[in-house]
Every structure is written in C-alpha cells, then in structure tokens.
C-alpha cells in the first residue's frame, strides 16, 4: 500500500514539515512519483520500528485492513508460547535457538527463517529500546501454516543487540505469518502495544505466562474498542 506525505504524517505522529526534512536528507525510505513523494506502508513501519517512533493506531484502520478478520496479537503469542532462555551468548546463537522453537516448522524452513532474520539485522538492529527486540523477516516467507505464531522469549542474561538506546536486550518477540498482510498487521500492532508502559512493565519483571497474556489481551481489547472502524 502506498501512502502520501499527509497519510504518513498521521501514521507516524510526525509533522509534514519534519517528513519533508527527512526526505530532503534522504533519511526516510520514499519514492518520487512525478513531483510528489510517496511511501510504502511496510517500509515505513520498518523504519519507524528501527527508530522507536511511536506509531499511530491508524496503522490498523486503513481501508485495506479489516480488524475483525485478522488475528489478535495475544492469540498469536499463545500459539507461539512464552519461553525462558539462558542468553548471554552472541545475537546469532540466540536467534538460531529461538527460531528452532517455532511450532510445526521443519529444519529446512527454520534455516530459511533464520537466514532471512539475519539478513534483516544487517540492515539495522531490530532492538527497539527498553531491553526489547523484534527480530523479523523484512519480506514475509511463505510457509505452509494456517495461523501466525509469535514467540515471546525472555533471556536470563541480556545480549547486545546494537539497539539505539544502547541497552542490552532481555525480551525478544519473533513471528511467522501465513501472509504478508497478517505479518504487517501483527508487526504494527505489536509495535503499538509496546509503547504501553504497563505492557513494558509486565515484560521487564518477566511475569507469569498467564499474567502476560492477560495484560496483552486487556491492552489489545482497549485498543480495538477505542479505534474507529474504517468507513466502508
């Protein structure tokens, strides 16, 4: 989906003047169409996540997204599970270990996912600050799965993720999705919910599985209830 400067300004909570400044300095991914600038929605979300920019809930209300037909973040996390790992080693080793935890994914597919995630990391860290990272593939891999899954992993020993705030990472979310649309939806929703201080607090204390899922469900339901439905 392509966005105008005005639409991108709304999604990023940034003034149009600031966007034009970023465009002029070539600091934000964009395309020029005749005399206008446009943005790819997926690339814009990637850019915002990498810079810990607080995105707008409007990311979920665009005309191409029907909330009631897309999965809830909490359901995807329940599918993937919450895991506690030793950590302390290099980022490569930790990510390889995490990918092996995806349910129902064979070894060849795990290797493909791992390589895609590492390729994304070479473009810039997915550490979003506050000890949290969201390593993911840039272009969703087509897998023979019916439902998305998100692994939530807590590390006993934090690792260096080259995050912008310089903090080591102790909480990692990693996802697989059956379609690009679902991938973008869940990535945007996760990024938005991680702006919630209550969610970050429950993660920082590595609370019980039941408590984490309950807090995420509550925050997600509030977000959906308060979000205007797209006009048909």
Description:
The protein has about 230 residues and is of the alpha/beta class. The chain folds into two domains: about 1-55, Orthogonal Bundle (Multidrug-efflux Transporter Regulator, Chain: A, Domain 2), CATH 1.10.1660; about 65-225, 3-Layer(aba) Sandwich (Mannitol-specific EII, Chain A). It contains nine helices and eight strands. The strands form two sheets. Strands 4-7-8-6-5 form a five-stranded mixed sheet, with helices on both faces. Helix 4 (about 75-80) packs antiparallel against helix 9 (about 210-225), helix 5 packs antiparallel against helix 6 (about 105-120) and helix 8 (about 195-205) packs antiparallel against helix 9. It is globular, with a radius of gyration of 17 Å.
Briefly, what is this?
With 232 residues, the chain is of the alpha/beta class. It has helices at 5-12, 16-24, 41-50, 73-80, 91-99, 107-121, 180-193, 197-204, 209-226; strands at 2-3, 31-33, 36-40, 82-87, 127-129, 132-133, 149-159, 169-176.
